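Q: Structure tokens for this one, please.
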Amino acid sequence: MTQKELTKDLQDIIDICKDSVKGYETAADKIEQGDLQTLFLRLSQQRKGFVEEIKNEALKLGTELDESGSTKGFFHRTWLATKAVFSRETNEKVINESMQGEKVAVENYNKILGNENIPRYLREILEEQQKLIKGAILQLNGLKAEV
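A: Here is the predicted structure, written as tokens:
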């Protein structure tokens, strides 16, 4: 894996994590149930931690990453906010959209983890983050049944 390829892959992960931060903050603002707000804010903070961890590791590799998030994520967040405002089934729809975003994140992690040449220490960090994202999917899925 070249430095350029690694930088691009890490940037993709940063983008999806930043999108998650903003998406969860948007969801927390739009949701009416206190428990869900707390969960979304906690997941937002967790993703902020992911971003910082990846940025620090990238700096050690001599790479600086952009923190803006993706354009695709911007449109997803805008749609999520609009849907939440006009939907009768706000909580369920917000949970579903959050789960969809997490599934995209898992796919992005799978892509970078599929490369055998990624440094071992970085692989371990990304695997742990992916494990936490998968846990969030399970938690959100459990909440769907309660809504």
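A few notes: The first helix runs from residue 3 to 30. The chain has five helices and no strands.
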